[in-house]
Every structure is written in structure tokens, then in C-alpha cells.
């Protein structure tokens, strides 16, 4: 069912075409103005009524209204652009809804036939009459040109709307992608800090339980360490959850992200949990970009956490090798087997470390060493030495000012 607005529009077009065509019927061949003949009413009614089919059958409508126009001269009426108004409207619709070759193939013969019969039915045909017929034929062609212009404009608007729609879909996809990446990043942060702190707390509680009967004073010390570890875990969890707050939430944490400068404190926490960890630097250390600094810290943290959770050993080694364009972070242990633990599903520690390294343009490998134990090695990119020096100089100058 067509909407009511369309019927009103179609009725208006038919009514206006009928009135204009009937006004053309007032003009007669002898240049007199008189009330229209019955033939004028018939031509106006039939040709205007045919316009209702111009959308569904534009070619047939154009041919039919042209045939009605060809009856003007034989019935004693004067052929003018007014009396062929329905043919002009159908020519416009044909140009809008049909291909150019179809419109040309229909309109040119229609214009010729419309004016070709007139000289045979009008006596004393003059050059003035010829100019009138040219005007009639031109009115159809002008209507067709306007129709083509409308068709091109609609096609252009359709292309613009399609581009806008695709751009909107692209923005939506990009927004969803960023949301997914942010979710993965937050999940990775939560995994790293929770797994690390819970593993430390579990190790400290195990040591305290083991020494409860034989060394109660040492047990108290371990319990104090356990309290500090759990408090630190809560603080880090609160900071990570703060990433989910709204931008206007002023209570979000503002503590800086951890980096290599906090690795000594991290190693001290593992030592208190019973894991002896040594650290060595090879090469000249340089300031790292924040993302790389955080990635290096998290890889060390996760690797040592895995040693504490899964490997039957009490020692591990951390090494930083500084090259010109990258830093290599390695964590190795000499464990000979897995600790006895209840069956559990596989975790995401190694996956998370690889994702972190790839996110900053680095690579990470992990596997069993030939001489025994497990090795995690990550190559992380560094800024050029010259750029780092310029940044250091700029920071020094700004502090001096």
C-alpha cells in the first residue's frame, strides 16, 4: 500500500496537468480564444489520467500521451506547449527513470510525430506556426534534459549517502575494535597483577604454615609480609579497575604505571616469598618509552610468577641486555620438573606476554632450555640513542629554567 503522501502528490500532478492542458484548449487554430471544445476535455482527461502510470511504465506512458497530443490538430485545436503538458510531464518521468539510450529512442520519435501531423491539418501554415511547433518539440526535449539532471543528482546523492553509511560503519567497526583491544589490555593487566600478587601471597602463606611449629617468630614475619602483599594486591587491583571509570570520575587513581625502576622492589618481594632471584645488566641502560617500560616490567613479573607457580626450583635469573636499537629481557630458571599441584586449566601467562611484546613492536620466545630449566626471552624496541639523548638534554634544560 502506498503512503497517503504519495497519493496526494500524484493527484496534484494529475490535476495541474489537466488544468494546464484544458487551458491550452481555449486557443484555437484561427487565433481566437473561446471555451474549450468537448475534444479538449477528452484529451485533457485521458492524457492527464495516463500520468498515474508514468512511474511503473514510463515508456508506455510517454507514447500514450504523445498519441493524445497527435489528436490535437485533427480535432481543430491549436498545438501548444500548454495542451501537451501531460506529454511534457511523462517525458520528464521517462528521463528520470530510464537509461539514456531508451529515453532518446522514445523521445526523439515522439517529438517528431507530435509536430509532424500539424501542417496537414492547419490551413495557411506559416513560419510563425513553424516556430510554435519547434517550441512544442523543444518543450519535450527540455523536460527530458531536466529529468536527466534530476536522475544524475539522485544518483550523486545516493553515492554520497552510501559513502556516509560506509564511513559510519567503518567508525563503528573501529570503535568496536578499540573497545575489544582495551578489554584485552585491561584483562592482561588484571591477569598480571592478580596472578603475581596471589602467587606471592600463596608462597608466603605456605612458608608461614611450614614454619608455624618450629619457628614462630619467623612465621610472624612471614604473616606481616603476607599482609603487605595482599594490601599491595588490593591497591593494584583498585588501580586497574579504575581504568574502567568514566572520564569525568575524579576519583580514578593517578599512580604512574610500573616500569624497570620498580623491578628491584619486585625481586625483593619474590625473595621474601622464598625465590632467590639475581639480576644482571649488560650494556648501557637508557630511558624506555612508557609502553615498553611497562611491558618489560610485566614480562619479568609474569615470568617469575610462573617460576613460583609451576617450577620445582628456588632460584631464577633476570638479565637485561641493552643493544643499540633494542633491549633483550630474559628470565631463566634451573628447575627440573613441575611442582605437584591440583589439576587446573591452562593459563594465559605466555599468551599475555607475547601479546604485550607484539603490542610494542617486539617479539617473545619461551621454552625449555637444552641444559634444563625454562627460558623466557623478549626483544623490545628502543628509541634511537640520539633521540634519547636529545630528550634527556631537553629535560635537563627545562629543569634548569
> Mean pLDDT, as a whole number?
79
Q: From N to C, what is the helix and strand string?
A: HHHHHHHHHEHEEHEEH
Rg for CA atoms = 44 Å
User: How many strand segments?
Assistant: 5
Write a short abstract of this structure.
With 401 residues, this protein is an alpha+beta fold. The chain has helices at residues 4-24, 38-49, 58-70, 85-97, 100-116, 118-121, 127-211, 216-241, 263-272, 290-310, 349-359, 385-400, and strands spanning 276-282, 315-322, 326-333, 363-368, 374-381. The chain has 12 helices and 5 strands.
How would you characterize this protein structure?
With 401 residues, the chain is an alpha+beta fold. The chain has two domains: 4-164, no CATH class; 256-401, Heat Shock Protein 90, CATH 3.30.565.10. The protein is 62% helix and 9% strand. It has twelve helices and five strands. It has helices at 4-24, 38-49, 58-70, 85-97, 100-116, 118-121, 127-211, 216-241, 263-272, 290-310, 349-359, 385-400; strands at 276-282, 315-322, 326-333, 363-368, 374-381. It has a five-stranded mixed beta sheet with strand order 1-2-3-5-4, with helices on one face. Helix 10 links the parallel strand 1 (276-282) and strand 2. Helix 3 (58-70) runs parallel beside helix 5 (100-116). Mean pLDDT is 79; it is low at 249-253, 339-345 and 386-401.
Amino acid at each position: 500500500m502506498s503512503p497517503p503522501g504519495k497519493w496526494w502528490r500524484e493527484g496534484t500532478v494529475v490535476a495541474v496537468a489537466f488544468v494546464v492542458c484544458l487551458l491550452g484548449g481555449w486557443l484555437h487554430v484561427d487565433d481566437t480564444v473561446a471555451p474549450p471544445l468537448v475534444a479538449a476535455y477528452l484529451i485533457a482527461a485521458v492524457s492527464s489520467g495516463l500520468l498515474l502510470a508514468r512511474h511503473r511504465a514510463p515508456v508506455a506512458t510517454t507514447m500514450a500521451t504523445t498519441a493524445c497530443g497527435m489528436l490535437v490538430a485533427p480535432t481543430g485545436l491549436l498545438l501548444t506547449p500548454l495542451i501537451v503538458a501531460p506529454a511534457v510531464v511523462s517525458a520528464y518521468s521517462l528521463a528520470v527513470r530510464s537509461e539514456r539510450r531508451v529515453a532518446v529512442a522514445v523521445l526523439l520519435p515522439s517529438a517528431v510525430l507530435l509536430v509532424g501531423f500539424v501542417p496537414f491539418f492547419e490551413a495557411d501554415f506559416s513560419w510563425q506556426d513553424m516556430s510554435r511547433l519547434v517550441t512544442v518539440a523543444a518543450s519535450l526535449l527540455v523536460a527530458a534534459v531536466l529529468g536527466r539532471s534530476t536522475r544524475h543528482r539522485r544518483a550523486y546523492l545516493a553515492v554520497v549517502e552510501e559513502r556516509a553509511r560506509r564511513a559510519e560503519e567503518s567508525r563503528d567497526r573501529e570503535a568496536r575494535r578499540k573497545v575489544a583491544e582495551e578489554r584485552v589490555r585491561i584483562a592482561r593487566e588484571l591477569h598480571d597483577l592478580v596472578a603475581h600478587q596471589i602467587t606471592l601471597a600463596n608462597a608466603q602463606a605456605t612458608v608461614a604454615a611450614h614454619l608455624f611449629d618450629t619457628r614462630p617468630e619467623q612465621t610472624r614475619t612471614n604473616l606481616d609480609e603476607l599482609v603487605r602483599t595482599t594490601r599491595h594486591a588490593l591497591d593494584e587491583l583498585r588501580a586497574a579497575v579504575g581504568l574502567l571509570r568514566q572520564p569525568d570520575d575524579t576519583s580514578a587513581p593517578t599512580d604512574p604505571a610500573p616500569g624497570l625502576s620498580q623491578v628491584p622492589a619486585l625481586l625483593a618481594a619474590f625473595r621474601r616469598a622464598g625465590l632467590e632471584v639475581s639480576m644482571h645488566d649488560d650494556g648501557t641502560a637508557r630511558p624506555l618509552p612508557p609502553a615498553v617500560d611497562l611491558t618489560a616490567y610485566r614480562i619479568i613479573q609474569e615470568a617469575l610468577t610462573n617460576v613460583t607457580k609451576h617450577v620445582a626450583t628456588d632460584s631464577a635469573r633476570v638479565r637485561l641486555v641493552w643493544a643499540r636499537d633494542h633491549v633483550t629481557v630474559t628470565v631463566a630458571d634451573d628447575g627440573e620438573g613441575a611442582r605437584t599441584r591440583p589439576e587446573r586449566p591452562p593459563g594465559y601467562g605466555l599468551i599475555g606476554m607475547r601479546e604485550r611484546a607484539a603490542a610494542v613492536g617486539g617479539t617473545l620466545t619461551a621454552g625449555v632450555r637444552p641444559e634444563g630449566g625454562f627460558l623466557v626471552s623478549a626483544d623490545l624496541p628502543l628509541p634511537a640513542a640520539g633521540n634519547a639523548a636529545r630528550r634527556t638534554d631537553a629535560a635537563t634544560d627545562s629543569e634548569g629554567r
